[in-house]
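Why do we care about 3D structure at all? Because function follows from shape, and shape follows, mostly, from sequence. That is the central idea of this module. The next example makes it concrete: a single protein chain, its amino acid sequence, and then its structure expressed as tokens.
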Amino acid sequence: MGKKTILLLGFIALKFILHCFLISPEYDLHRDEYLHLDQGRHLDWGYISVPPFTSWVSKLILLLGNDVFWVKFFPALFGALTIYIVWKTIESLNGSLFSLVLGAVCILFSAVLRLNILYQPNSFDVLCWVTFYFIVIRYIQTQNTKWLFMGALTFALGFLNKYNIIFLLIGLLPVLLLTKHCMMFAQKQFYTALLIGFFLMAPNLLWQYNNHFPVVHHLKELAATQLVNVDRFDFLQHQLLFFIGAFFVIISGFVGLLFYKPFKPFRLFFFSFFLTIIVFMYFKAKDYYAIGLYPVYIAFGAVVLGEWLKTGWKKYLQPVAIALPLLLFIPVYNIAFPNKTPNYILKHPELYKKLGLLRWEDGKDHTLPQDFADMQGWKELAQKTDSVYQKLPNQHQTLILCDNYGQAGAINYYTKQKIQAVSFNADYINWFDLTKKYKNIIRIKEADNSKTELQKTSPFFESSSVAGAITNPNAREFGTTIFVFTGAKMDINGRIKAEIKQYKDYLKE
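And the structure:
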């Protein structure tokens, strides 16, 4: 086994080891993770919130036992594969051993590590971006049409994982068309690859069509509730923070693409970067949507620095260059990861506030970073719901109806009972079991919506009560209340059908 292989395996091992220290035991899974895990129980070619790829991984996690270990393993694996692809990109650009190590260090100690702690589509999205760019580089180098087919496969998988990869094409295609590389569009293999890619994506596109393109409504809702609060200056500022330790490497990559002669065939990447960033800013995208853009420029920069620092006194700067990403990552490690308890953050909020980490999607500052608050209170909710459910008569006729997907998913993940909570939110609207005749409802209501629940709903049931609430003040769901209604005087199933029809009519508009 060669030195390069040993070093690569060492970085991958270190990647997995690091993940053991990134999340404090005080935190539960994230609200989004519960939704993605439940999608594995309802396999389909599409979902309201995301394409189907994550549900396939979720199914595998279910088959492996559905343990937290496996939930965290797969995003870490995608992160490790990202390091591998960057390594192979540097090799393809004839980078030195120093360049390989520098590139791996820059990816390992960056925002990619932050993405990889959560089971969301983002980790695989970054992997698809860097893989697609690697394929473009290999095609330019070899003109071998096999890379066209691999590019089609990579893009299709990326599309089936997260539609965000469309931004990659928006930023890359115009530049390809305006350079000598446009000759690829004259090859029949290009169009064959295009058809294969379309064929792979077609089931999801057909699902979107048959379901009246819920992705469009999802994006409109996202724009109205979250993206409206995105500040374009903050977007640019956060781009610097994501790879702060690798900033000098990325800049070296840009300089190299303009002036380093061996990179002349890849100069399109220089212009593609800025076009992609401009498009992201125009649509007021969330800052982390652009993370997949940077690894390839780290690869370019690592190769250039390897050339610049290989002789004379400059070679003594190599250890400094490798140490810098690690040294700058240390303060990031201390603040950007949920490795500090909520109480610690409450007692030391200054730096979190200064860096904007306490600002949520509503544009306001809160006591914890939003992602951290989204990892609190879920076990408590599930345990209290379990306790209530066990005491009910006619349990098989009990509907557990939640306000949002986080509540429903958390109950389904942690419950010890054979129950399935649902919601009129997100994909759960398609997962109601209407073969049962419901007589009881356990209603989970967000704090802001719970004040009048008893007054509004009690007349339709023989008995009603408040059974508990999330009491963890650090949870985003603090105050979420559990109501119990038994002995229905109305047709619950009919009301559910009416709500579902109303939602689907909304999608048709």
